[in-house]
Structures are given as C-alpha cells and as structure tokens.
Amino acid sequence: MQADFAYEPVHDGAGIQLAVTILADRDAVRAQMREDAEAAGYRVLECCGLDEYASGASGGLGDLVLVDCVEPDAGAMALLSRLDMRAGKSGAQLIVSTTMDALDAVFGCFSMSGAQILVDPGHAERVIAIGRSLAHVPNLRLRELAEEDRLMLLRLTEQVAGMAERLEKLSPGQREGGGAFRLEASSSAWRGAGDEYVVRSENTAVPRLPEGPVIRALIARRQARAKFFDADLFADPAWDILLDLAASRSERQQVCVTSLCIAAGVPATTALRWISQMVDTDLLVRIPDPHDRRRAHIALSDNTADMLARYFSEIGLGAKEQVLVL
Predict the structure, then answer these.
(1) The overall pTM is greater than 0.70
(2) E-strand spans in the chain?
(3) Per-residue pLDDT tens for 95-137?
(4) Nearest CA among 112, 115, 134 for reference residue 272
(5) How far apart, in whole angstroms, are the C-alpha atoms of residue 274 and residue 68?
(6) pLDDT tens per residue, range 254-275
(7) 115, 166, 202, 213 - which has most CB atoms within 10 Å?
C-alpha cells in the first residue's frame, strides 16, 4: 500500500501558497514528484528537465526544490552547485535524489543549503522527505492521514529526532547544554593563568589512534556477526562510521561519502542522515577535494580523533598493539 499523505495547502506569512520547483530528466520520476508535491499542498512553479531549467528558459525557484539527478555530468553538477547556493541564500529547501554511483559527485555539490539527499529512494522515502520539509512550515495541519501512514511518519520523525538528540545530548560535554563528547572532570593538574589554562601532566604521552590494520581487524570482527545473526540486530551506523574514519585517518587515506555509506552498514539514505547530523555536531568534518572543488571528503574532527584515541587506550588497544590481541 502506498503512502497517501494529504495536507491543506501550505502558505507563507503573507498567505501565498508555497511553491515547488521540480527538476528531473526521468519522466516517470518527474511525474511522481509532481503528484507528491501537489498532495503535500504545494503549487508547482516549474516542472522540467535539468537541461531545460539550466538553459534559462525557466528560472523561478520555489520554496521547495525537488531534484532527481542520476547522471552528474559537468552541466548537471554546475546546476546543482548553483541551486545549492541559491537555496542557501533564499532559505528554500532542497530534496535531491540520486544513485549510489553518482552519490560522490552529487554530494560534493551541496554545502550551503542543508539539502536532503536520497539514494535510490522509493516512493515512501520521497513522501517522508517532503513531510520533513513541511515540518518547517508554521501552522501546518494534516487533513486526512490513514493510521498506517500516520504510524510510518511518526516512526521516521522519532528516528530522526532521536538521532539528533543522541548525538547532541548523549552526555555532558564540551558545549553548554551537552554535546557528543564526554570529557573527564578537570584535575589538580589544571591551573588558571589569566584567561588561559595550562596543563601539567605526570604522563605527557598523548594517546594516539591504533594502526589502521588493528582497527580494520576490529571492524571485521564486528561484521562477522552478520554471518550468524540478522545484521539489523546490531545496526550502529554512528559507531561504524567512526571506526571506518579512524582506520582511514591512521592509514592517511581520504574517505569519500559513498565508501562511508557502505561502511555504515545501513541504507545509504539513512547513512547520509547520520553523516549530516555528525557533521552538524562537530563529530565529523567535510573537507573539499583540493583537486576538484565539486567533490568533498569526510573525516574525523580533531576532537573526535582524540576521544577515539583515548577510548582505544582505555580498552587497552593502543597505537602499538598488534591485531592478535584484539
């Protein structure tokens, strides 16, 4: 049964119905996007292919922009980058669907707009993404929503909200109100010096990340559970992402977003949500490719790398440990 969401028309503060721009080269996908947007209460401002829009024949940008890009050639990537910039400045919301093969190129085009990126999405995933965009519209009212669809939307909302809460308020941390990092209480080794602090430590050795093969062996052991149990039973994308990036940092390897989605062990769209939340909470950083500014890599922030090194040291997995002691 397909999700059937129906909303009252959505309006801005001036009472004007919000508009959507739909850009897709695949006819069937473009038609489905239009149907879903209209059902959500948007009026269609533009509905055409990427090349047609880029040609300048159409130039309007709706409050919501739905894009389907499966062949990110130079022209398409240039258009996506412009859309990212325009949406980032205007506050328009972007929902972009693509394929796993095109993910790295598409991901690299979006850094300003906070676009939702969906990988090989089904109809329900697109509907849910539009529903998330509607959460930013004030005074939104649901007109008709079947109980099954209501539960599906509720589960998704709880999942996304829970994800953000776990990352932002997992434990008391560095930032006011808590954060994703947990730090030990300061000891007598700390002393004030004006507005600065210096540390006197009996042990000046700073924990370092274990060697790459050691972390890879740990990852392999985690993955081995799927041979005997349902992999969903142990789904832990945040930790799998951190482990993969820790190993890559030790190996001095850059990590593309496609590789990281695979390492997360969950559907790519779900992995992208985790990556986005982890970047927002400073666990991860987005690094533009110096050789191709349209692409980007993901890495551990320095604080995260330090916390992971301390964790590995705590469990006896130091930088000089051998794989056999795991």
Answers:
(1) yes
(2) 6-7, 19-24, 43-48, 64-68, 93-98, 116-119, 142-144, 190-193, 196-199, 284-289, 292-300
(3) 999 999 999 999 999 989 989 999 999 888 888 888 888 776 6
(4) 115
(5) 21
(6) 999 999 999 999 999 999 999 9
(7) 115
Burial category of 99 from C-beta neighbours within 10 Å (exposed 0-12, middle 13-18, buried 19 and up): middle
- In degrees and rounded to multiples of 5, residue 39 shows phi and psi of -65, -30
> For 212-325, CATH number?
1.10.10.10
- What is the distance between the alpha carbons of residues 78 and 70, in angstroms, rounded to a whole number? 14
The domain spans of the chain are 6-167, 212-325
Length of the chain measured in residues: 326
pLDDT number for residue 295: 82
Which residue is associated with the tokens 């985790």?
Answer: 274
Euclidean distance between CA atoms 239 and 67, whole angstroms: 31
Structure tokens at 25: 């080269």
DSSP assignment of 35-80: HHHHHTTPEEEEEE-HHHHHTTS-----SEEEEE-S---HHHHHHH
Strands 43-48 and 196-199: unpaired
Phi, psi of 61 (to 5 degrees): -120, 120
Fold assignment, 6-167: Rossmann fold (3.40.50)
Closest residue by Cα to residue 290 from 149, 123, 48, 108: 108
Nearest to 48 by CA among 70, 74, 20: 20
- Cα distances (angstroms) measured from residue 59 to each of 31, 45, 93: 20, 10, 16
